[in-house]
Write a structure and sequence with these properties.
single chain; alpha/beta; Rossmann fold; 7 helices; about 40% helix; binds NADP nicotinamide-adenine-dinucleotide phosphate
Length: about 250
């Protein structure tokens, strides 16, 4: 029996209203793809682009900091499209507040939105991923858990992304025998869309480019290109990895 084309799959992309998540959707936009695009608001452009390119697409609004939201999202995707093959856990934000000023509540908000939501997405999706012939999970981590330039410290974001990576690697081991791969992509400084949430102001982005060995910050599509590859058939033997797309920032 021949397999259906690799574009035929149900994919959930969180944080799809701008930046990296929207760029991932643009990469995945093709006939055969059935995509649930998630954010708290502002998904019209992403969904219109997906449909124009021949994909089936639905928007789903949810605040991932709320308990139960991630599981509802998985339920929506599975009910709408009859299953769930792939997840891109991308929704997130960076909190630049330093020790001494950042509160325990802010730590909890970052952990809930990024680490906890990933945990809940993966838990709810487990039976669907195991059933799928092209099961994939890609989580978007960050350089902030790996590189610590003095003017760019994000302690609670680093904690959330570090936890996310640990969850992803253990999930990768657990699901390997089912043929499901689980990987993290860790972007360096990446350009924000105008509707995105930027934690940096002033000339901080210019200085970030200067700090990056390649001399520029990434475009969202630089990250999306790797995500799309990891979701595809040629990446079937790559699992449990944290792959940096950071222009050499982690080299120091
Ligand atoms: N840009 C960078 O320099 C950089 C570097 C390293 C890692 N990253 C990571 O890459 C991912 C995407 O970042 P980006 O730069 O593309 O940011 P962005 O343009 O601001 O997009 C963030 C997305 O996440 C969603 N989101 C944020 N908080 C949410 C919540 N509580 N519930 C549901 N959705 C939520 C936003 O939805 P709404 O707009 O509806 O709120 C938006 O769709 C994040 O995980 C970030 O940590 C970014």
């Amino acid at each position: 029996m021949s397999e259906s084309p690799p574009t035929e799959r149900v994919i959930l992309v969180t944080g799809a209203s701008s930046g990296i998540g929207a760029a991932v959707c643009r990469r995945l936009a093709a006939p055969g793809a059935r995509i649930v695009a998630h954010a708290r608001s502002g998904l019209d452009e992403t969904v219109a682009h997906l449909r124009d390119a021949g994909a089936e697409a639905e928007a789903c609004l949810a605040d991932l900091a709320e308990p139960g939201a991630a599981a509802q999202l998985v339920g929506f995707a599975a009910e709408t499209f009859g299953g769930l093959d792939q997840i891109v856990s991308n929704a997130g934000f960076a909190d630049p507040t330093r020790f001494g000023e950042v509160s325990r509540g802010e730590l909890d908000r970052s952990l809930a939105t990024m680490t906890g939501a990933f945990f809940d997405l993966a838990t709810a999706a487990l039976p669907h991923l195991r059933k799928s012939r092209r099961g994939r999970v890609v989580a978007i981590s960050s350089f902030v858990a790996h590189a610590f330039p003095a003017d760019y410290l994000f302690p609670v974001t680093a904690a959330a992304k570090g936890g996310l990576e640990a969850l992803a690697r253990t999930l990768a081991r657990q699901l390997a025998a089912d043929g499901v791969t689980v990987n993290c992509v860790a972007p360096g400084f990446t350009r924000k869309d105008k509707q995105g949430h930027s934690s940096l102001g002033g000339d901080a982005w210019q200085r970030a480019a200067e700090l990056t060995p390649m001399g520029r910050i990434a475009d969202p599509d630089d990250i999306a290109a790797l995500v799309a590859f990891l979701l595809g058939p040629e990446a079937r033997h790559i699992t449990g990895q944290v792959i940096h797309v950071d222009g050499g920032l982690g080299l120091g």
